[in-house]
Design goal:
Length: about 210
């Protein structure tokens, strides 16, 4: 498959718009004549709160007040209806203390070692959080999701404890910043960029270059 057939997607599992963006991408792919290969890149949405040991300091102020979150709620509800995603939980139903780092480590490992299985695992992660309300920061949850998609749970446990893998994921976070990716989801196709949970028609225009 040529580079032109790849769509790079930057996303973070704790982002509701990334779930909605995936729904939009799935709809576009189902309607498009050619298969598009998803080249996923992790993005650390809460990186500014992350301590050196990898945990999140929830006491750090991020300047987001209730007006900001009310706007997010409204936008999420609008897109849930627009993208026929009524199964998605309400924005406030997901605890803000869910950390996606372990999920991103697991997904990065699966993408590298089991590429044919990655999309199913990625979908399972999104649905576990945004449909079932499960804590995807919990290693046992990740093991369960992996085993359901045909991956050895012990491999996921080892991956999460792998310092080299963690370094690779942290470098991917930095790489996203260096490429001036400032929010998620971000879709990149053959140098064309779309930001946010854009509709399928916009993804088509992105791929077709106009």
């Amino acid at each position: 498959m040529s580079d032109a057939d790849k769509m790079t997607v930057y996303s973070d599992y704790v982002c509701p718009f990334c779930y909605l963006g995936r729904r939009s991408l799935d709809t576009f792919q189902a309607e498009y004549d050619h298969e598009i290969d998803i080249d996923w890149h992790p993005y650390d949405l809460r990186g500014h709160k992350r301590r050196p040991d990898g945990t999140i300091d929830h006491e750090i102020e991020d300047g987001k007040d209730e007006a900001y979150y009310e706007q997010v709620r409204q936008n999420v509800n609008r897109l849930r209806e627009q993208y026929d995603a009524e199964e998605m939980l309400e924005f406030d139903a997901i605890p803000d203390r869910v950390d996606s780092l372990n999920a991103q480590l697991a997904s990065f490992y699966v993408k590298r070692e089991h590429p044919a299985t990655w999309l199913a695992f990625d979908t399972a992660l999104f649905e576990a959080l945004w449909v079932d309300g499960r804590d995807i920061g919990d290693v046992d949850v990740l093991v369960d999701l992996a085993e359901r998609t045909g991956i050895e749970g012990s491999a996921i446990r080892s991956a999460i404890e792998d310092d080299a893998l963690r370094t690779a994921v942290e470098e991917a976070f930095i790489n996203a910043q260096q490429k001036q990716i400032t929010g998620v989801p971000t879709f990149v196709y053959d140098k064309h960029i779309a930001r946010g949970a854009v509709p399928p028609a916009q993804l088509r225009r992105l791929v077709e270059g106009h």
